[in-house]
User: Which sequence fits this backbone?
């Protein structure tokens, strides 16, 4: 096991950061009925990791986004609770379990932290299985210790090595997911 093999945490962290925070959206005025905006996410390097169109209704937020190439629209209920000092505070109702929450996370769909961890778990396992199968297929074409078999072109060998490396990196990411779920207190700050 190449535990933590040289993978900076932010790479996976950025993916996990695709979330909507009702407090922040309310503060910026985007939960007022009729308000609409495009909300973008960025990773630690400032690169875009996705965006979403928001349209606020009286009791719901309409979301339009693309997930894995599929255009998707969702309607998330907005709950409003009175504040001690006047005004109202907005919350989301988790589309999966109905719990009142401030933050929804996007993984397979928008859901509260608890429900999206269930989605992480199955997605990480899928990723892990796919990465292993792909790696075995590549390794089967090579000699022992990933050496180039006689007669194989250098460039083919290089391509297969790149496939194996990518699979290893994907497994590292899945491992990071696992650690984040089970040992959140050990994760980088802000995770
Ligand atoms: Zn939930």
Assistant:
């Amino acid at each position: 096991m190449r535990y933590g093999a040289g993978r900076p945490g932010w790479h996976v962290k950025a993916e996990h950061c695709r979330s909507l925070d009702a407090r922040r959206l309310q503060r910026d005025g985007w939960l007022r009925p009729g308000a609409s905006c495009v909300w973008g996410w960025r990773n630690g390097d400032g690169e875009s990791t996705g965006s979403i169109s928001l349209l606020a209704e009286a009791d719901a937020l309409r979301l339009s986004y693309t997930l894995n190439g599929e255009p998707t629209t969702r309607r998330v209920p907005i709950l409003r609770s009175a504040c001690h000092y006047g005004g109202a505070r907005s919350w989301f109702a988790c589309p999966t379990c109905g719990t009142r929450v401030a933050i929804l996370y996007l993984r397979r769909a928008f859901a509260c932290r608890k429900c999206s961890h269930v989605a992480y778990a199955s997605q990480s396992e899928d990723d892990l299985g796919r990465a292993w199968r792909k790696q075995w297929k590549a390794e089967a074409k090579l000699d022992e210790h990933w050496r180039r078999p006689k007669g194989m072109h250098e460039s083919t060998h290089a391509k297969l090595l790149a496939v194996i490396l990518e699979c290893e990196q994907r497994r590292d990411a899945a491992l990071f997911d696992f650690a984040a779920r089970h040992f959140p207190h050990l994760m980088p700050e802000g995770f």
Summary: The pocket of zinc ion is lined by residues 94, 96-97, 99, 111-112, 114-115 (CB under 6 Å).
